[in-house]
TrEMBL record:
Residue ranges of every copy of the MmgE/PrpD C-terminal domain listed in the record: 269-431
Similarity remark: Belongs to the PrpD family.
Name recorded for this polypeptide: MmgE/PrpD family protein
InterPro entries (UniProt xref): MmgE/PrpD_sf, MmgE/PrpD_sf_1, MmgE/PrpD_sf_2, MmgE_PrpD, MmgE_PrpD_C, MmgE_PrpD_N
Residue span, MmgE/PrpD N-terminal domain: 10-249
One Pfam short name: MmgE_PrpD_C
Superkingdom of this protein's organism: Bacteria
GO MF entry, a single one: lyase activity
Amino acid sequence: MTQRTDVTRALAEWIVGCDLNDIPEATQKEGVRTFVNWLGCAVGGAMHETVDRALAGVSPFSGDPTSTVLGRSERLDALHAALLNGISSHVLDYDDTHLKTIIHPAGPVASALLAVAERQPVTGKQLLNALIVGIEVECRIGNAVYPHHYDRGWHITGTTGVMGAAAAVGRLLELNEQQMTWALGIAATQSSGLREMFGTMTKSFHPGRAAQNGALAAYLAKADYDSSEKAIEAPRGFANVMSEKQDYDEILGGLGENWEAALNSYKPFACGIVIHPTIDGCIQLSEELGDDVQNIERVDLVTHPLVLELTGKPEPKTGLEGKFSVFHSAATALLRRDGTPTAFTDEAVNAPELIDMRRRVKVETDPNCHEAAVSIKATLRDGRVISKQVERAIGSFEKPLTNDQLDTKFVDQAALVIGKAQAEELLKEAWGFADLTDVSTLARATVPR
């Protein structure tokens, strides 16, 4: 590991100089997939009560209503729209994941970008460039401090996402190297988000606030509002204060050559990523058992310890808590073959048959079990035992969702908010956003007719 004292400035220099032509075609294609997935999630979560309450809380303080609250008729100023859209894109826990760090990259970055794009002219190519740059920044910073930073209790999507959003919006504002260095510093000092909030409305506040604060950092830097020029690497800077690990080679090594943004993955299930193998395996088990799934006496899971640490809520009371219950997730996968947003509603977690089944689920942890694997053993009342082993779940980097599967995911969730016909039209526009001369039309196309 190389010790450096110019990490923040070197990163800023790269951000300012990285044009779309410098980004490999494969990474650009993944950037489009990332945007499509994010937009579907933002619209899909738009009518959640979390968004209703956030909107009620901040609307009185909004300025000039330049920007769309995606999937709704309300408009806010760009910074508050970034906040709301970051919340809606994450509230279902259905958004993208950089599996190396468990960062949800698009929420902070894309939410800020599209809100700003309604305030000034932005082409699709400019948006794609800024999106990829912002994601690259947050994921590389995440790599430098993960897992110690996460293990301390920081929600890494919020803490690194604010710097990704600052970098991305800074690209749209055409910040120079000095201003971009300041923008990263202003963002870093606002870095926050606690894992204690998982299972509550405030979890989705983290990417929303990161989007809002990152955009604010870029606007302040544009006005020559200064900050420390060593905000990431200084002894009292982000990495040293918030982590026991500081590997700056993860930030600057291979920058512009190896792309973290190309490693993004997309969830088939609307919950914590560590439960996905359990849901995948339990759905397979349910399909194999057919009606006999009703005769399950006991389900034994063997998982990595992180699964219980993150999703060990045995008796969730709300849909949001259900997203962090491996017990509920196994039950709804077995009885309803469902891991989509409908599996994580207040109705679902309080359904008597699901409560009964989740109480039959027992979890044993094994540190030698991979975080992305699970062993499942179902014992039936007649004594039969059916086993299932999942090494990597659907939606993992090894088994990524296809474009067709992304289409289905997009329409299924967005249709609940804006109707199927409008969702299909929006999906088509989203896939072609890089060719738009004005991406603000895409935000307005999310407003329910």
